[in-house]
Description:
About 50% of the residues are buried. Helix 3 links the parallel strand 5 (about 75-80) and strand 6 (about 115-125). The protein is of the alpha/beta class. About 30% of the residues lie in helices and about 20% in strands.
Amino acid sequence: MRVLLTGASGFIGTAVDAELVAAGHEVVRVDALIPQAHPADAVPEAVGGERVHRLDVRDADRDDTWRDLLGGIDVVCHQAAMVGAGVTPADLPLYAGHNDLGTAALLAAMTANDVQHLVLASSMVVYGEGRYRCAEHGEQAPGPRPRADLDAGRFECPCPVCGRFLDWALVPEEAAFDPRSSYAASKVAQEHYASAWARQADSAVVALRYHNVYGPHMPRDTPYSGVAAIFRSQVEAGRPPQVFEDGGQMRDFVHVGDVARANVAALEAVAGDPAGAMRAYNVCSGSPVDIATVAGHVARGTGSSAAPEVTGEFRIGDVRHVVASPERAAAELGFRAEVAPAQGLAEFATAPLR
């Protein structure tokens, strides 16, 4: 198939590109090369020796170059986005512009050029807090954790009925959206635009909800870097990795190579999907791990004997636990992750970074 790949020069985009080429697909590469992901002194002119068209997805519905590139495309694989949890509220226009407006403009351009299939990079952040159960009162949906609780070191989510700490459980794709950050709100918007487009344009979408992605060529030393890269930078600077809260936050860390394989599986699936449909899938390792253990894996991978330092610090808006079920992706896409976090995070500690 002929695939237009947005965000082709990014951390995930380059891995997806390589996997698409290996699977025999023809790739047309586009990237805006925004400074939050691409420092000015390290702007790539090509990926895998192939040209990257430097275009802004926000212009997709009004730029003739986009029209020319979309001609003859079978599937768009949309990785371009402003990422990260949002450093300050001043970032809100960046998320709304690149993610909300950019996706809407891309979908309009796809319709104008009769491109009917989309693979969308979404995120587990759409869920907000994960899934919780009380031993006495069953499944519960906790609200945002109060600052007073966090200040006092009470990090677990309490049952709204009895106040006892809740147990986490795996989140299925049908869970309700509950975005807790500007990035999360923009990812929800992307999914809503894509779902509406699928119905209105009689087209098909697969949305992939990535969990915590890490691996070679991850960006480093920016406020938008993932926590694994931040831990690595701290260890390389001779400091123990700094773990927020009490380190017990549960997450799923999925290797970028597995994310790339999930995209190829989704691309091949969406081409055969019925028109007017959108399907969503968790893309995760299936091996939950707490943040303190993540820090330990990264530190050991560098050869450091430094134990993670649990600081008790916190960020308002962070969720306590969010771990998803991989079963729908396995059943319908034939995708299961191959790299376990214990192995992948240790290897990541010495992998090349941006």
